[in-house]
Amino acid sequence: MKTLATLFFLMLSMLTSPFAFAQTTDSTARTYTVTVVVPNVTHRSGTIRVGVANSEATFNGESFKTSVVNVPASGEVQVTLTGLPAGRYAVRLMQDLNGNEKMDYNGQMPAEPFGFSNVTMLMGPPSFGQCAFDLNENKQIRVGLMEM
Question: What predicted TM-score, i.e. pTM, was given to this entire model?
């Protein structure tokens, strides 16, 4: 009887243990699309490089998701980012005028156009919190380019 009780206890503890079940990824988890619209492109050359951040770390470092599109001869620029799980995100972008795949500077000031979600005027570098928006449905956001 003691052995049976011990076996029952071990089985019960295995079933309630976090290691009892292999964690699986739910392939049906809902994801969303963000379409970034850049309305005021004045330089009709180069590319628009978009980075999506999902935390302060990915806002200040390597982006969570990125996309690059060529600047068209006319009209607004649209960049669509797909497969984003629900959450809080911020968009940062820059227009790479010379194709070197990085922001150029004149001293400490950006030499190429740039922009952030939810920011139309800068009073210093923005934070993730200032630029962030909630994503729980497909969304279109407008991000204007700024030049220094």
Answer: 0.79
